[in-house]
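Run log // design_07
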């Protein structure tokens, strides 16, 4: 896991509108790791292409093909959700978050980090 300093620097550049691809990748991966730590499991796959995907939340585990519960969104939306800058219902209303299957409401898990 990257250092807190690297995360802080990437967040500062992101907030200043100066984030580069490497910053987005670092932020997405770190925030996905926080989600897994908060809600371990394999019932839901959260995808933030092209930077990362994780399985989280307790429940039935899938073994082949597409999991029964999938959440997918762009990096900027994931960062905003994880930082509490947008609520889950508001994010869903934008149409930029695709969520299908059981256990795909992340309201109770967000935000993951507040800064």
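design_07 sequence
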């Amino acid at each position: 896991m990257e250092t807190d300093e690297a995360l802080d620097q990437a967040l500062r550049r992101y907030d200043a509108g100066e984030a580069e691809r490497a910053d987005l990748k670092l932020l997405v991966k770190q925030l996905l790791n926080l989600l897994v730590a908060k809600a371990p499991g394999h019932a839901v796959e959260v995808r933030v292409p092209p930077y990362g995907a994780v399985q989280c939340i307790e429940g039935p585990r899938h073994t082949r093909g597409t999991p029964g519960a999938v959440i997918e969104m762009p990096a900027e939306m994931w960062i905003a959700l994880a930082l509490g800058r947008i609520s889950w219902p508001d994010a869903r209303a934008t149409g930029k978050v695709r969520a299908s299957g059981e256990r795909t409401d992340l309201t109770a898990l967000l935000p993951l980090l507040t800064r």
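The mean pLDDT is 92.
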